[in-house]
Design brief:
CATH class of one domain: Mainly Alpha
Oligomer: single chain
Number of strands: 0
Distance between the termini: 161 Å
Strand content: under 5%
Structural class: mainly alpha
Largest sheet: none
Shape: rod-shaped
CATH topology of one domain: Lysozyme
Number of helices: 12
Order of helices and strands: HHHHHHHHHHHH
Length: 273
């Protein structure tokens, strides 16, 4: 086909299309149909797109997922700190303890252990003498104690031995009036009125008031323990001897005091009331 024929055909098609459009515009029926079709068309509004993120792996380590073996509770941390401080203090205490004849560096610790042991013995004796010590709250016969330093010393020795300090002070007052140089007609000497033979058995110097008071307090504690905490029997044994007390118990039973010498009966009454 020649170029001229091609151009002619194109012009012809365009002319035909134009004519059809003009015929549609002039035809009212056609226009109403077009309007009806346009009204029935529903325009759907465009919806926003929703992006769904992909699952992402969380690499954080939460506290509850931490292995239990790697966690320390606050209480455990405090215990570790306090334990460390106590360990350092103990180590320092031991390193600073004085040497005992260059043989032991635990002299101070041994002293503490010995003191605790002594206190346990004292409390044991005090428990057994509890009934006798509670009796000190009753009214006692009046005694005017001298202004002597040995009175306070006697009270402290009694406390250390686990016996009543009130009873012991009254006892020493009856024995010597707190006179370290007192001598009795029966041969007893010193502030606690020990017989020399008795003092030698106890390892006590009867003329030394410090030694004698400590020895007398310990002897009273042993007598009290011997008689089951009965302090009246302990006083009778100190004044008249334990043989005399044992005889009175065998002879009179519950009324044993009546079988004691009158001096010993008065001795007990003056001290304990």
């Amino acid at each position: 086909m020649s170029l001229f024929n091609t151009l002619s055909a194109s012009r012809h098609d365009a002319a035909v299309g134009t004519m059809e459009e003009r015929s549609l515009q002039r035809d009212p029926t056609t226009q109403s149909l077009v309007a009806i079709l346009q009204s029935t068309m529903i325009t759907t509004p465009a919806k926003p797109r929703v992006l769904i993120p992909g699952k992402r792996r969380d690499t954080r380590v939460l506290p509850e997922t931490t292995p239990p073996s790697r966690r320390l509770t606050p209480r455990l941390r405090y215990a570790i700190v306090i334990g460390s401080i106590l360990f350092v203090l103990c180590l320092t205490f031991v390193s600073l303890a004085p040497l005992d004849n260059a043989q032991s560096s635990f002299h101070t610790i041994d002293g503490v252990i010995e003191w605790v042991h002594t206190q346990q013995q004292s409390w044991s004796i005090a428990t057994q003498n509890g009934t006798a010590q509670s009796d000190t709250t009753t009214t006692l016969p009046d005694i005017t104690l001298p202004a002597s330093q040995y009175v306070a010393l006697a009270r402290q020795d009694a406390i250390n031995a686990g016996i009543s300090p009130d009873y012991f002070v009254r006892q020493i007052y009856l024995e010597s009036g707190f006179n370290p140089n007192a001598v009795s007609p029966y041969g007893a000497v010193g502030i606690a009125q020990f017989l020399p033979s008795t003092a030698a058995t106890l390892g006590v110097n009867p003329w030394d008031p410090i030694s004698a008071l400590r020895g007398a307090a310990n002897l009273m504690a042993s007598y009290s323990l011997q008689y089951g905490g009965d302090y009246a029997k302990a006083l009778a044994a100190y004044n008249a001897g334990d043989d005399t007390v044992n005889y009175a118990l065998r002879a009179c039973g519950a009324k044993w005091i009546a079988c004691l010498p009158a001096e010993t009966q008065n001795y007990i009454h003056t001290i304990m009331g």
